[in-house]
Amino acid sequence: MTADAETEKELRETLGGLLRRRCDIETVAALADGPESWDRDLWRELVAMGVPGLTVPEENGGEGAGFSLAVAAQEELGRRLAPVPMVSVVAARTALVAAGTDEAARLLGRVGSEGMTATLAVGRTTDGWTPAEGVLAVEGSAGWTLDGTVPVIADAPCAAVFLVAAETGVGPALFAVEPQDRCVMTPVDALDPTRPLGAVGLTACPARLVAGPDAFDDVLRSAERAALVLLAADAVGVAAEAMDLAVEYARTRQQFGRAIGSFQAVSHRCANMLVAVESARALVAAAAGALDELGPDTDTAVSLAAAEALETAVVVVQGCLQVHGGMGFTWEHPAHRYLRRAKAAEALVALPDRLRERAATGMLPAA
Amino acid sequence: MPSATAQDTGTPSARRAHWSVRLAEFLDAHAGRPPRDKTERLAWARAFHAELQETGLAAPGWPTEAGGMGLDLADQIAYHQQMTAVRAPKHPCGLSFIVAPTLIKHGTAEQKKRFLRPLLRADEFWCQGFSEPDAGSDLTSLTTRAERAGDEYIVNGQKLWTTMAHLADWMFALIRTGPAGPGGAGISYLLIPMKSRGITVRPLKDISGGTHFSEVYFDDVRVPVENLVGEEHGGWAIARTSLGHERATAFLSDEFRFRRVVNELHRLAKTSGAANDPLVRQDLARIEASVRVLASNSRRALDAVLQGRDPGPAASVNRLVRAEFDQRLHEVALRVLGPDAVLGQREPTAPEGGRWTYGYLMSRSSTIGAGTAEIQRNTIAERVLGLPSGRKQA
Questions:
Q1: How far apart are CA B90 and CA B95, in angstroms?
Q2: What residue numbers bound the domain in which A302 lies?
Q3: With an 8 Å Cβ cutoff, are A363 and B284 in contact?
Q4: What sequence ranges are listed for the domain Acyl-CoA dehydrogenase/oxidase N-terminal (chain B) (predicted)?
Q5: Pick the residue with more confidence: A115 or B342?
């Protein structure tokens, strides 16, 4: 085993152990059905372990371990449906590292040392992130202020800082704002309660410039890539656990005097799940590697991995539900919680078919 | 490493440079455009591999004592890349590399000495005698039998789907020598000379109209007992070992071939204009994802084999992914051809010599030969996922 493989195995075991103790399905269900759906205490433990900083360079207060390790951690979090804002925080930290401004460095310090949560408030399309529509930034004598509404922000209810993509008049830029009476967060009912959503209304809200119009596109793309790869890793974990649930049920559930897993209609469905999970995991590992060593193929690798993994999670969880028959349709059974996480993830950043379109652009030779 | 001398036993990269330089020189001198004529092309490929073996540059993954190069994983990958890049001719008898690992692992010293060199040089061709009319997916029910008579076996029965039978000098065959039982009991692994009296080869036309395989009939065929590999009745376990090797190592060269074919498909899509069609672009992106998955899985599988571990799920999964990928690739290729997909492979105006329509027809065997996709899924379900078997227990 290589040193990297050894480190990954240790991380998976440590994190897997923590999650088995702290994040079983009953805990997730109780939180999801309660008033505050995210798990602050678990987040603190993850911060103490350094998980949210795995991808952040050491000079920016992170662990400097790279995406290759971060995707392994995220897969474990996905497997347990961990209700923590990891994807959003890693995307935000990636944006801050890419921005490289003093303000970004100051925020990175707080996110790193205090475990402060942050999320991006951006415009959402089927094809990825854009500047938030109708949010305007104005520079006055006392600095920047923002006006407008961002209707759907991932992990907004857990965020201590919003990175808002707003229009300045000379191009979009990224600003930092904090919840206060001029920045009001309203929870939004989410298909997947383990990744809570919120709207933010900004009224002449004081904001600090994180990345100007020149850097904006690169910063947003970096953050989006990070979000896609972590979301894809999360999806692999969701799919892997759903597969295990389906296989276990197929092994034990008896009908017609035999285990239903002995019928090929069921066993082949399970075999397809394994093929899909292994394939998605391989692509996600490759995409993480491509993010750690940026190159001309990075965007294609990320798009392909995200398309495959996000779709795989939906297909595998739907299959898991089917294998469980009527049980899978009940509120009590956890299948719907996996289905919600998988289906919502597909639409969170960019849809699989749009990602494939991006990949096609990257991989087809120029005309 | 056959030609490694004292001064280049240093770092792995020094050793790699050593053989790769020699291979580059060899390829400069020997690769080139294949002859158009089929018979000449075969002779050309045979000559290439004979000289490759002569130069000590054949069988990168075999141990040196078996006449291979004993290269490690990184070097094997580099080797295959180097061969693929110049389109060096493939060994004209791929089946040889199914029998070879079995001989290396289970053959007697005499058998290795007799068979491995001519096999590598493509001086002798091999065919595989496993399937029978009533033993396809259910291979252990095979009935072609051998009776012991002194120092000979007398073989009677019939094999089917025998690729290369009309060209092969030898058949490695699974033959019933004892009563059937669980776990492939009573089956022996025999090496049968194809020139033997009593063997009849009847070519079988396949889906493309070509003759890639045959029926082989055995009528009191006498085979010397020294042609038994492993123990009598112990052939089933050996055959599975050989399949394991096939799965793990054959992927490696396929990986580069698939990459090349996908790139060729991209070019076809560009020239035909299909690359601008959003639906085709979706298909091409899915194909791209698959070819990358194959590359990643085959490395994992090969890595495991080289470390002496079972290739495990990666190999079973890859076999299925590869089979279905090959079909999907050709389905997409015909979509890319668009209106030209109506043209038969012999029509002179068919794009790229009709290779895609021909490939489409041939790719239908990908999910049938050497274990159907259904059997592959059974294997994954039972051996990897631990689901109960649906078959009647013997």
A1: 12
A2: 218-363
A3: yes
A4: 38-121
A5: B342
Backbone φ, ψ for residue B168 (5° rounding) = -80, 145
Q: Same structural domain for residues A193 and A236?
A: no
Interface touch B284/A364, C-beta < 8 Å: yes
Do the chains contact at B320 and A275, CB–CB below 8 Å? Answer: yes
Report the gap between the CA of B296 and the closest CA in chain A (Å). 6
Contacts of A311 in chain B (CB under 8 A): none
Residue A64 to chain B, least CA–CA distance (Å)? 25
CATH number at residue A26: 1.10.540.10
Q: In this structure, are A232 and A345 located in the same domain?
A: yes
Can you name the residues that pair with B214 across neighbouring β-strands? B162, B203
Is there a contact between B387 and A267 if contact means CB atoms under 8 Å apart? yes
The Cα–Cα gap between A104 and A93 comes to 9
| Nearest chain B residue to A270, by CA | B381
A154: closest CA of chain B, how far (Å): 28
Domains parsed from chain B with CATH numbers: 2-92 (1.10.540), 126-238 (2.40.110.10), 246-384 (1.20.140.10)
B298 vs A: CB within 8 A? no
The verdict on a CB contact (< 8 Å) between B296 and A258 is: no
Measured between CA atoms, the residue of chain A closest to residue B293 is A279
Of A271, A275, A283, the CB nearest to B289: A283
CATH number of the domain at A169, please. 2.40.110.10
> 3-state secondary structure string, A210-261?
EECHHHHHHHHHHHHHHHHHHHHHHHHHHHHHHHHHHHHHHHHCEECCEEHH
Mark whether A223 and A303 lie in a shared domain. yes
Whether residue A219 has pLDDT greater than 90: yes
Catalytic status, residue B226? no
Question: Can you give the pTM of this predicted structure?
Answer: 0.89
Number of domains in chain A: 3
- Does residue B304 belong to the interface with chain A, where contact is any CB pair within 8 Å? no
State ipTM: 0.93
| Per-residue pLDDT tens digits of chain B, which is 394 residues long | 344 444 444 565 565 558 999 999 999 998 778 898 989 999 999 999 999 999 999 998 888 899 999 887 778 878 888 888 888 998 999 899 889 989 999 999 999 999 999 999 999 999 999 999 999 888 999 999 999 999 999 999 999 999 999 999 999 999 999 999 888 999 999 999 999 999 999 999 999 998 888 999 999 999 999 999 999 999 999 886 544 444 455 666 677 789 989 999 999 999 999 999 999 999 999 999 999 999 888 777 777 766 667 766 667 788 899 999 999 999 999 999 999 999 998 999 999 999 999 999 999 999 998 789 999 999 999 999 999 998 865 4
Task: Specify whether A192 is located in the same domain as A277.
Answer: no
| Residues A173, A239 share a domain | no
Decide if A268 and B388 are in contact by the 8 Å CB cutoff: no
> In this complex, is the C-beta atom of A126 within 8 Å of any C-beta atom belonging to chain B?
no
Which residues in chain A touch residue B286, judged by CB atoms under 8 angstroms apart? Answer: 356
